[in-house]
Amino acid sequence: MTATALPRERRHDPHRRERIVAACLDVIAERGVAGTSHRRVAAAADVPLGSMTYHFDGMDELLREAFTSFAGQVAEQFEERMAHAADREAAVDAVVHLITRDVFATQRDLVLTHELYTLAARDPAYRTLTNAWMARSRAALERHFDPLTTRLLDAVIEGVTIHRALDTEARADSDVVEAVRRITATA
């Protein structure tokens, strides 16, 4: 008696690519770009290893897609925060909130941002991605501030959030309020 081989059932997984991208970000946050591999991402996404090469031409494409997704999410949050500011005073408060609550809100976001910045420092293709991210942030700020003030605020947002994230002692939000008010007072 011979068993008839049944056709193998194909797993319908329409969101597999997105799950792989999300898992890639998780692996990067845990192990850094250098510790990210197809095998680790596949395991984190709970997909067969072959799915990696089916969906992505290589690790560079996967990293680019993952960081594009991350930058887009952060930029959307930034744009939304600034869009809700009805006037200049609310915009100043929104910038303070971005620094104290939104940007690098989690250790994961901090690590992902710095991993992206490191890639961008070495590879112009990633610099294009970070420049597009910064352009979106500045456009959101320019709804409320002139171009020079916008550039200064953008630099303060980046710098202060990095310092706050990496300081060994907690810093008072009042320092952020003072910095943002000083920059926007002359504009």
UniProtKB/TrEMBL annotation:
DNA-binding region in chain numbering: 37-56
Entry keyword set: DNA-binding, Transcription, Transcription regulation
One Pfam family cited in the UniProt record for this chain: TetR_N
Ranges where the HTH tetR-type domain occurs: 14-74
InterPro entries on file: Homeodomain-like_sf, HTH_TetR, Tet_transcr_reg_TetR-rel_C_sf, TetR_C_31
Keyword Lyase: no
Name this protein carries in UniProt: TetR family transcriptional regulator
Source organism (scientific name): Paraoerskovia sediminicola
